[in-house]
Amino acid sequence: MSNLNTALVHYPVINKHGETVTTSVTLFDLHDIARSSVTFGMNSFYVVNHALKQHNVVKRVTNFWDHGFGKQYNSNRKEAFDIVKTVKFWEEARQDIERRTGQPVITIGTSARQFKNSTSVKEAKEIIQEHPVLILFGTGWGLSKEITDTVDFMLDPIYGPTNYNHLSVRSAVAIILYELTK
Fold it and tell me: How many whole angstroms separate alpha carbon 111 and alpha carbon 130?
């Protein structure tokens, strides 16, 4: 395994009006990001949501693939869900990694926007070689200012050949993890 860990943040994130909100867990995000996280060698995939009912959604899905019909139907999915952890707040994910590794964690946020503390994939790859890293992916319209002002770095946005820049979080995770681990 690498020094990398992923977190899908449902709170605090912003809505299209710039207000801080909580978003709901979606099954597609859970499935696809867990699979991408395992494919690219993440240690953990944290689902960050302060609503305990949303933790229950994650638990029901993981139990289905760990113990239910899903385990028999597709045992590969169980492997992907083995690294899923739920936490109320993203700082809990950082603390969990620090406890596990005994080292301080570098936090890297992601966004479709550029920030003052933005770093390139190339620079992030160098950081990953030396430190445990937690990469935060936002739902809704992105990570709140509370997070973007607190993380160590923000990753440069993903740009394609057009001006359109609004990927699903599932797609962004797969692209970023691929770029960071190749």
Answer: 23
Report mean pLDDT in 10-residue bins for the chain, 182 residues: 89 97 96 96 97 93 82 79 95 97 96 92 93 97 96 95 91 97 92
Q: Please state, in angstroms and rounded to a whole number, the distance separating the CA atoms of residues 57 and 12.
A: 19
For the chain, domain boundaries: 4-181
Judge residue 21's burial from the number of C-beta atoms within 10 Å of its C-beta, 0-12 exposed, 13-18 middle, 19 or more buried. Answer: middle
Stretch (H or E) spanning 73: helix 69-73
Listing DSSP states for 13-31 in one string gives EE-TTS-EE-PPP-HHHHH
CATH superfamily of 4-181: SPOUT methyltransferase, trefoil knot domain (3.40.1280.10)
